[in-house]
Specification:
Blueprint (H helix, E strand, L loop, with lengths): L2 E6 L4 H12 L6 E8 L2 E8 L2 H7 L8 E7 L14 E3 L2 E9 L2 H10 L12 H13 L9 H13 L3 E9 L6 E6 L4 E4 L4 E4 L2 H4 L5 E4 L4 E6 L2 E6 L4 E2 L21 H7 L1 H16 L4 H5 L3 E6 L2 H17 L3 E5 H4 L10 E7 L5 H12 L3 E6 L5 H5 L2 E4 L12 H21 L4 H28 L2 H8 L3 E6 L2 H17 L2 E6 L16 E6 L5 H12 L4 E6 L10 E4 L8 H4 L1 H13 L18
């Protein structure tokens, strides 16, 4: 969840680290901190809140060419100055992304040996543990500052850690060295002739050019100026190949947009276009013979990715006639799923680093299932670990609430469903060709929805949502999947309590929530389920609810209070019908004076369990 960065070179470490933290702030923004070595001494500045709070606290006179930094999403310990990273033990400073699961036992052991803790975090055990191992291994007369001895002390320390971590470690005894290590949390290293970098994000690590390396689990790196050496946890040196990274130009720039979320909504048409074109290249690498033998499909994801799976389930079953199931990744990994070599497990993740989805991938591989990653990051752990991958082409998404990545996931999954139907011959070829043509025309339809939405979603519509305390979302079939994602979008950036339900389930308990003026948002784009969904709308209106209908159907005027019309795109409708609620969610957050890019308690990339 958190973002870490490190730098060693000839330039100002504080400037480079702070700049990197700003770009990593999407990973967490509860607090931030910077640690550098200046004139042989550790200097640590850390503050609760956004990176700018830490930046403003850094003395202008601070001069250093080596440093580490951290932007935090709180797990252990509330957001505060003292719980911010880096955490220190004498001459050692550590920044950490992940969770140390056995920290309580380690802390108790260290406290029994006289160590005093100053924070409530799990991370603080790490620098204290390293220092304790160093002090216990050295005699009173042994004061040689030996890099190999220090390195092996770190190895001993990490062998005691359970959980996930990406670490960057500074030590004033070695002022030209950063040690980093990874298990379960992403970490990237880059180097040029004069500098070296580490970061949680490949785009940040690659900013200054040079070779780029992605650390594997249980891999360490010794980082010096323009030099990087890799080791396993036994201390054996490893040769490692650099990767090719296609840099996304100006992806961080807002342009004329007030927020990244608005910019990313406007980028949906291009993201759809690039994904439609790009998935064809991905299909070349899929093994047709294995796909032909698939008898079961399981789609796995978290949050928005899970909702993309819900939507894809309907399409996959309709197109391929293969039974398909959707699982929340955090539940899938503990459910002992009934999967095997005739099962295709589809892992859906924007970042490709989602911890629960990554664990689901590992479980699927152990059970010999065929695995397919649908991700937005070619260098991510899920992309590299799956048997095959489909890369969405949404480019970098900075706002925490996913928009263009979701639309791109739908395009990728629907395209894959058509591809699978083609090779299994479960649909007429003319129908497949017609749907492929519709996919090519989706960017135009999405652009029209966005342009009209930004024009007609005015203050009157936002007033409908802004002051609500709770909102119900309804839909049937594929519309239920869209309603689920719309509900999540609104709740996560406006803090309005929203829940989505299948419209047919309303009378089995949920209707008890309905009272006078209760707002219900209903999706109706499936003509085959129109009448069934209308029944639910009449039921809630009979009990005093207000109905906001998002539809491409002709509805009786007494079935709704407000209507928002979207294009008729058949089974592809969710790709466009979600857009109005993406826009409404954004504008409602702005009206409530909430930062839509960084809602409270959330982070973009969830790399902890």
């Amino acid at each position: 969840m958190c973002g870490i960065i490190g730098y060693i070179g000839n330039d100002s470490a504080t400037d480079i680290v702070v700049d990197g933290l700003k770009k990593l702030e999407y990973r967490g923004y509860d607090s931030a901190g910077v640690g550098v070595i200046e004139d042989g001494k550790l200097r640590v500045i850390k503050k609760k809140g956004r990176v700018k709070n830490t930046e403003e606290a850094i003395p202008k006179t601070l001069k250093s060419t080596i440093g580490i930094g951290h932007t935090r999403w709180a797990t252990h310990g509330a957001p505060s100055d003292k719980n911010s990273h880096p955490h220190i033990s004498q001459n050692i400073a550590v920044v950490h992304n992940g969770i140390i699961e056995n920290y309580a036992c380690l802390k108790k052991e260290l406290e029994s040996e006289g160590v005093v803790f100053t924070s409530e975090t799990d991370t603080e055990v790490i620098p204290h543990l390293i220092n304790k191992i160093i002090s216990n291994s050295m005699s009173d007369t042994d004061n040689i500052k030996c890099e190999i001895f220090y390195f092996h002390s770190i190895l001993k320390a990490i062998r005691k850690l359970s959980g996930s971590y990406a670490l960057a470690i500074l030590n004033t005894d070695f002022p030209d060295l950063i040690v980093c290590v990874k298990r379960g949390s992403p970490l990237v290293v880059s180097k040029s002739n004069t500098a070296s970098f580490i970061a949680s994000d490949v785009g940040v690590a690659s900013k200054h050019g040079g070779e780029i390396f992605i650390l594997d689990d249980d891999e360490l790196a010794l980082i010096k100026k323009g030099e990087v050496n890799f080791f396993d946890t036994r201390g054996r040196e490893k040769k490692k190949n650099s990767i090719v990274y296609e840099k996304e130009e100006n992806s961080d720039e807002l342009g004329n947009n007030a927020h990244h979320m608005l910019k990313e909504i406007k980028e949906i048409p291009s993201a759809i276009h690039e994904t439609v074109i790009g998935v064809k290249k991905c299909f070349f690498n899929l093994e047709k013979n294995k796909l032909k033998k698939i008898k079961k499909i399981v789609l796995v994801g978290c949050g928005t990715a899970y909702h993309a799976g819900l939507s894809a389930k309907t399409v996959l079953e309709k197109f391929t006639k293969i039974p398909s199931y959707v699982e929340v990744a955090s539940e899938f990994r503990y459910s002992n799923p009934l999967i095997g070599k005739e099962t295709l497990v589809v892992l859906i993740s924007q970042s490709g680093e989602t911890a629960d989805t990554l664990a689901a991938l590992e479980l699927a591989k152990k059970k010999r299932a065929l695995t397919l990653a649908v991700v937005n990051n070619t260098t991510s752990a899920i992309a590299l670990g799956a048997d095959s991958r489909i890369i969405t082409r949404a480019k970098k998404e900075i706002a925490v609430a996913s928009t263009k990545a979701y639309n791109s996931q739908l395009v990728a999954l629907y395209s894959f469903a058509l591809y699978l139907a083609d090779i299994k011959q479960t649909m007429p070829q003319d129908q497949i060709n017609a749907l492929k043509e519709m996919l090519l025309n989706l960017p135009k339809a999405a652009r029209e929805v966005i342009e009209s939405g930004l024009d007609k979603i005015n203050s009157d519509i936002i007033k409908i949502f802004k002051d609500e305390k709770a909102i119900m979302f309804l839909g049937r079939g594929i519309d239920y999947a869209t309603a689920s994602e719309a509900s999540l979008k609104l709740k996560e950036i406006t803090y309005i309590h929203c829940s989505a339900y299948p419209a047919g389930e309303l009378k089995h308990g949920t209707i008890a929530l309905i009272e006078n003026n209760y707002l219900v948002v209903a999706y109706l784009t499936d003509s085959t389920l129109k009448d069934k969904t209308l029944n639910a709308l009449y039921e809630v209106k009979a009990r005093g609810a207000k109905v906001f209908a998002i539809t491409n159907q002709d509805l009786p005027k007494d079935a709704y209070d407000y209507i928002y019309e979207v294009p008729r795109l058949g089974i592809l409708s969710p790709i466009a019908s979600i857009i109005p609620m993406q826009i409404i969610s954004y504008l409602t957050a702005v009206a409530k004076e909430i930062d839509p890019d960084k809602p409270r308690n959330l982070a973009k990339s969830v790399t902890v369990e």
